[in-house]
Amino acid sequence: MNEQEMLSMYEDAGALLNGHFVLSSGRHSSRYLQSALVLMSPANAVALAGELIKKVNAAEIDMVVSPAIGGLVIGQEAARQLNKPFIFTERKEGEMQLRRGFTIPEGTRLLVVEDVITTGGSVCECMAVVREHGGKPVKVLAVVDRAPNAEGRFDVPHETAIALNVETYAVDDCPLCREGIIPVVKPGSRGVA
Ligand code: ZN
Predict the structure, then answer these.
(1) Quick check: is 118 in a domain?
(2) Whole-prediction pTM
(3) Ligand 1 center to 119 CA (angstroms)
(4) CATH code, 102
(5) How far apart are the CA of 175 and the centre of ligand 1, in A?
(6) Total of domains in the chain
(7) Cβ within 8 Å of residue 44, ≥6 positions away
(8) Domain containing 52: what range?
C-alpha cells in the first residue's frame, strides 16, 4: 500500500475530513483526522500495522509498547504480526505510568507504536516510563505524522506510514474565519487528533 492508498482508507472511513476545525492547541485547521475511525475495521488495523512493521527489523526488538489510548489498537496489532509481547503505558491523574502488573526485564529493547504523532509528547512520556523501568526504546513507529517537518522530537529513530502536512492557523489569522465559515470542534481523546 502506498501513502495515497492509506489516506484513501482514512477518507473512506470518514476519518479525514476537510472543513474548518478547532485543534486541541486552539489553532484552526482545514483538516481533521481521527485514526480510531479507521481502526474500527480490524482489516484496516491489520493492513496499517503490516505497513508499519516493514519499517522495523523484528530481530532488533523484544517487545512493543504504546501510549494509551491512541496507540492501543495499532500497537497490539503490530505486536501480533511481529510475534512480540505488547504492553502499554497510560495516564493516571495526568501522569504517564506503567500499570496492570506490566514489567520490563532489564535491557529489553522496545518498539514504540502510536497512531498519530504531532508534537510527540505522549510518545516521549511513554519512552521515559520505559527507561525508568529498565527498558531501552529503540524506535518509534506511527501511522500518521501531522508534523513531518518537525525536528528533534525523539531521541531514537522514528518512521511513519503517512506524512500529513496539516496547515494550522492562529485564531486571529485564519483564512477560513475570514471567509466567514463557522469552525467546528470535533471530539477526540485530546480534542481533535
Ligand atoms: Zn478559523
Answers:
(1) yes
(2) 0.85
(3) 21
(4) 3.40.50.2020
(5) 7
(6) 1
(7) 9, 13, 38
(8) 3-179
